[in-house]
Structures are given as C-alpha cells and as structure tokens.
C-alpha cells in the first residue's frame, strides 16, 4: 500500500506545522527530526518558500486535522516516525503523539497499539503497511 498525501496546501502546511511542534516538544529539534520533516515536506510537494514560511509563522499556521481515514493514518504514521527518529522516546513527544491521535479520531485501543508498536521498534524503520496493520489490529 502506498502512502497517500493530503490534498490542499493548507492541509499540508498544517501537517508540517504539527510535526515541527512535535519535534520541539522535548525542547530541541535534532538534525534527524529536521531532516525527516524536510523530507516529508518535499514528498508532500511543499516548496522551500512555503516551508520557510511555515517555520517563520508556525503559530499562525492552521493545523486542521484531515477528514479522511487514509489521510489520518498517514498523518499519524508521520507523527510516530518523527517521535522515534532520534532512536529514543521522549515522554512529552509520546504524550503529544497520543493526544494528537485521539484528536484525529482514533480510538484509545488503536492509539495504545500503534504507540506501543512504534516505541518497541525504535531502532527500525517502520514500514507504513506494518504500521497500518497494527493500527487496524490485522
């Protein structure tokens, strides 16, 4: 299964802003976190100018959650990948991921399963399909 991207530029900007805020949750944005955020932005088709605008105006970027289940799954996957990119879990980052997952409309069991899966596999790159299977209890 190939990841699908969000449609509107505002949705994409909001997603990147949420990732930046998550990366800042432990007080420092590591080089790994920065690189992953930039890679996701490029994959989503966000230009360098738009990315810089997001960084400069982070608090004014509207972070509305996606409405479609598939988009929410991509959003959550990106959040968890960012959380574990530095091969450790910061409690503030994990809490923020879980809160965002609940706000996205995922159930408590889904959040718990996917969070435990991602933190148990910190040193491995998590395949999107494997994440979705755990999330959906398959």
Shape: globular
Distance between the termini: 14 Å
**What is the tally of helical segments?**
7
Give the C-alpha Rg. Answer: 14 Å
* Approximate strand percentage: under 5%
Largest sheet: none
Helix content: 55-70%
Low-confidence stretches: 1-6
Integer average pLDDT: 86
The secondary-structure class comes to: mainly alpha
Total number of strands:
0
The helix/strand series, from N terminus to C terminus, equals HHHHHHH
Provide a compact summary of the structure:
This protein is mostly helical. 64% of the residues lie in helices and 0% in strands.
Characteristic key phrases:
disordered N terminus, mainly alpha, 64% helix, 7 helices, 138 residues, globular
Structure in words:
The protein has 138 residues and is mainly alpha-helical. 64% of the residues lie in helices and 0% in strands. It is built from seven helices and no strands. The protein has helices at residues 9-24, 31-43, 48-56, 69-84, 91-103, 108-120, 128-135. Mean pLDDT is 86; it is low at 1-6.
